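Write out this protein's structure.
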Amino acid sequence: MWDDYSLSPVELVDVVWQGVPDFREAYELPDGLFRSRVPAYEEAVARELVVNALVHRPYTQRGDVFLNLHPDRLEVVNAGRLPLGVTPRNILHASRRRNDGLARVFHDLKLMEREGSGFDLMYDRLLTSGRAAPVVSEGIDSVHVVIPRRVIHRGVIQLIADAEKRHNLTQRERIALGMLGQSEGMSAAELLSALELPNPAALRPWISRLVESGLVAQTGRTRATRYFVEPALIREAGLDDQTALIRIQPHRLRALILEDLQRFPGSGRVDIHRRIGAEIHGKSIVRALNALIEEGVVSASGTKRWRTYQLATRHGQER
């Protein structure tokens, strides 16, 4: 507990970092013939959390800043709500000064780089270290920021390190590549939501150079566009430990549906989807079924939620 007001801002941030043993714990991850150390909590992230809590809190109301350490995460709880115009859904980009004078003092003390740089730094450091992005939520009269401790995808660390050496990525590009590296691919809409962007045009500075340089591939167009890390880079980074169906090719999806209907005739779409792979996008299943019906390979009966599918009689006899 640091509540005696005896420390300057610089001293307070240093003492908090040095006074919590969990902050200096680290994981040892295999790296070829050697092992590399990955800190449980990055110093830059922990310091940024404390600085943000001190600079952006409303000093017109009482309340402490709490650092709640859990086995798998760090939660920072601050009194008051977010500044007007800032929400958990736009915090990566929104910049609102609540305590202008205090922000200038912290900037001059080199405790913060500039207004609005805090959360993009945290996104960058967390995603490039194979962790999930920070989670921000508001209570009735408090703000909660949760930072994960566990490294979910250790291969992402190598993936981004190699990409950084070859292409000198910007912070935005590292964040986008980190998100894609931790997933099996994301649609344009999913990426817009994850990056808190308002429209597809705003996505270009984050993703266009990644596509041009061959780090990220894309399929589809407009709303159906899907982005994913190039498979060759996935293999090099050791992220290909299992085959995923989310990017399944149409001819493979067609074969899976036909095989499923041969075994389970009269099945509904939900059951077919569940059996052949829940990670496949539902719209892909619908498109494939409609195409098979148009070709006369599959027939359907019933409407809406009671609609069932079976192999067309002639096709079933041939198989």
